[in-house]
């Protein structure tokens, strides 16, 4: 890290912005592609990885079962990376399935191996199952943060009090040679595991400390630019229940597994104004995107073969493509559109459910 | 303030706890009564004060109308103070009605005059109408904070970023001579006025910054003692819609005027665990208390005569009585019950709707 960059990083820390470049090499700085003007994100939701070839698949067709294991999950990631050549891979939790994991470190190493060996930057958040083995949530996240090519962080710099592990943000800069202002912002949050409040049953939620950090960070980022943003975490917000076939793209085949209470993060997102789409996992056989108050609420769709699913309904992954404006003089402008589609794990990795999530208004 | 107290105050500020005693005289320290073991709070909701005898009443019977003005509001407070002799008076917003106020300072001075002249400590929060004259919310709250005998604060010490004005907490100590640990905690919050987000219509809400302050403060207070707490603010939470005649005490004669979004404060309250009851105003002809997840959600009931109401349905005020345990040796223990009732503005200030909000479990 150069001296100037060091000073910028120190200043970033002082203003509570977790600049992804601060302890990273230049090669890991996130940038839009100079040829296509695109930044492509592959979301991998709910791998539920356990012990590799010893771990059987769940909810596959009878003829698939005898030859199906965690290695099918690995193969699916490898094929997705080859097909998409994403600029970033995001794992949205339940990356490993704690209860069936003999060694959580070995499981994580195997689960993330295709990302690591691809040399593509990757980021992860925690689900509700990642800590259900011998490592705490903190230790699971610590292991992830120490892995190769990851931009994951344990928590933001300069923030003393924050709930959970794996709350951080990343900034995506324009194409090579453009100035260093972020043109796309990414937020990653720990949506918890289970309620620890006896009178509240069910799953965890995003707490005031995290929302306060998000709000402060968003406000500071928006002082510099009006870049759109995306948010990734595991457990869907209660507002995912707002949709049905009349107003979403994709399918809803099970109930919304949000917390049983509303912790207000959707309101906080709407008020902040920069986040245009939220991507979660958790509900493996829901894969829709619906729009509410200008924010698309999307599922990744179940990816992992050791996760529950629906036999005959292919495992799948979501891709997001942010595209820069192609200016008349041939240069690239700011982000003009954010689109998404999914690919299902069939022979052709068939693309389905193309949709536009956001278009810049003049 | 003594030197030791000064040091304690400085320490309180450093740990973000707004100790009510820090810039107050000992006479204004809140304490339980040594004879009764009680601490009694009078809530005055929605005075809607304007220009005294020049301001007519709303929604009173035709025979009341010719002789009815803001002075009826003043008289009602004076009678309530005389009848109840409360240890604290809490004004839960819409203290003045901005649009009809010729001079907001004069209106506030007149509205709070009975509290000031009673020599009883009082606290106030803002509603959605207080700033609808020539003073901003900040300036309205600044004026209140400067008034005599008030324990109101502009905002907590040591907190750099917090939304709104009039977020603070007060600690009520045991009877005279007991140690200085708080046995009852009171939180006051600014629930805002109107949404400033174009896609969200309606009223304001309690923001992440306020919830984070509340959560931090609650956690620190609970390190010292397991004292129960009460929260006062203006706009009811969306969870007030959870009740009907089958599970509340009082009446519901209009819709719940909460924000159109859920900002999660109820979840935050449940998680914190110390707040046993919430008291709001805003909806003048609702006056119920209902319990959800161990927290009573209560309305004060409309108090002011220049506020909308219901002709023939008396203006009213809520009283809360917290009582210490009477130990076998004659000394007072910690708080063992929190009860409430209302008085209506008839000849006898008739007591109605007695109910128990919280009982200490052994």
TrEMBL record, chains A, B:
Its main location: secreted. GO terms for molecular function: hydrolase activity, acting on ester bonds; metal ion binding. Its cofactor is Zn(2+). One of its GO terms (cellular component) is cytoplasm. InterPro entries: Calcineurin-like_PHP (IPR004843), Metallo-depent_PP-like (IPR029052), PAP14/16/28/29 (IPR011230). Keywords: Glycoprotein, Iron, Metal-binding, Secreted, Signal, Zinc. It is found in: Secreted. Residues 39-285 form the Calcineurin-like phosphoesterase domain. Residues 1-22 form the signal peptide. It holds the Pfam family Metallophos. Homodimer. Belongs to the metallophosphoesterase superfamily. Purple acid phosphatase family. PANTHER family: PHOSPHATASE DCR2-RELATED, PHOSPHATASE DCR2-RELATED-RELATED. This is Calcineurin-like phosphoesterase domain-containing protein. It comes from Mikania micrantha (bitter vine).
């Amino acid at each position: 890290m150069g001296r100037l960059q060091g000073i910028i990083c120190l200043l970033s820390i002082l203003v509570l912005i977790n600049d992804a470049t601060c302890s990273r090499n230049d090669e890991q700085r996130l940038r839009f592609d100079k040829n296509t003007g695109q930044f492509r994100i592959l979301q991998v939701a709910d791998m539920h990885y356990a012990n590799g070839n010893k771990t059987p698949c769940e909810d596959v067709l009878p003829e698939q079962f005898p030859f199906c294991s965690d290695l099918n999950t690995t193969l699916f990631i490898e094929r997705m990376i080859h097909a998409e050549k994403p600029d970033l891979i995001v794992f949205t939790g339940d990356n490993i399935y704690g209860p069936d994991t003999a060694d959580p470190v070995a499981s994580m190493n195997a689960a993330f191996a295709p990302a690591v060996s691809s040399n593509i930057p990757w980021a992860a958040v925690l689900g509700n199952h990642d800590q259900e083995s011998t490592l705490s949530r903190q230790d699971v996240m610590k292991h992830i943060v120490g892995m190769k090519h990851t931009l994951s962080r344990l928590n933001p710099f300069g923030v003393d009090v924050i709930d959970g592990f794996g709350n951080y943000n990343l900034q995506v800069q324009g194409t090579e040679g453009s100035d260093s202002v972020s043109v796309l912002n990414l937020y990653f949050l720990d949506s918890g595991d289970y309620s620890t409040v006896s009178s509240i049953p069910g799953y965890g939620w995003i707490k005031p400390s995290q929302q306060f950090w998000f709000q402060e960070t968003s406000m500071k980022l928006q002082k510099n630019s009006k870049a759109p943003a995306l948010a990734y975490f595991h457990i869907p917000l209660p507002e995912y229940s707002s949709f049905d076939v009349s107003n979403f793209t994709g399918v809803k085949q099970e109930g919304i597994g949000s917390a049983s209470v509303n912790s207000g993060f959707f309101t906080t997102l709407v008020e902040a104004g920069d986040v245009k789409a939220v991507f979660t996992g958790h509900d493996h056989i829901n894969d829709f995107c619906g729009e509410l108050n200008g924010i698309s609420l999307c599922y990744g769709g179940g990816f992992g073969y050791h996760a529950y699913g629906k036999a005959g309904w292919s495992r799948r992954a979501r891709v997001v493509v942010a595209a820069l404006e192609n200016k008349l003089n041939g240069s690239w402008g700011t982000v003009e559109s954010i689109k998404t589609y999914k690919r299902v794990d069939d022979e052709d990795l068939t693309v389905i459910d193309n949709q536009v999530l956001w278009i810049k208004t003049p």
